Amino acid sequence: MKKLAVMAAAVVAMSANVNAFDVDTKYKQACAACHAAGVAGAPKAFDAAAWEARMATGMDALVASVTNGKGAMPPRGLCMDCTADQYKQLINHMAAPK
Questions:
Q1: Angle formed by the axes of helices 84-95 and 59-68, to 10°?
Q2: 5-57 pLDDT tens trace
Q3: How far apart are alpha carbons 94 and 97 in whole angstroms?
Q4: Are 40 and 71 a contacting pair, CB within 8 Å?
Q5: Residue 79 and residue 41: Cα distance in Å, rounded?
Q6: What angle do CA 68, 41, 31 make, to 5 degrees?
Q7: H-run or E-run covering 87
Q8: 46 phi and psi, to 5 degrees?
Q9: C-alpha angle 32-56-38 in degrees, rounded to nearest 5
Q10: pTM across the whole model
């Protein structure tokens, strides 16, 4: 019985790691194609000045923009499986200077 409990705990721990959201990896997979170079008016990632006015509109407005699409950015950007919370993490990641 003790071995079963240890195995169950290990499976839960591994599952949590598999499902963890790595914001930098997701940025590179889904956002960098446009935001690394500022393609089609996209604010450049890690350029605080490029994000300042956008961040002033509030996070809800920014999440709505990415969810619905804006300008050349299609709805949901290139992250079709992202949640609203993950979009917030990605926006904060890109808006922060490096």
A1: 110
A2: 444 444 444 444 456 999 999 999 999 999 999 999 999 999 999 999 999 99
A3: 8
A4: yes
A5: 18
A6: 60
A7: helix 84-95
A8: 70, 15
A9: 25
A10: 0.80
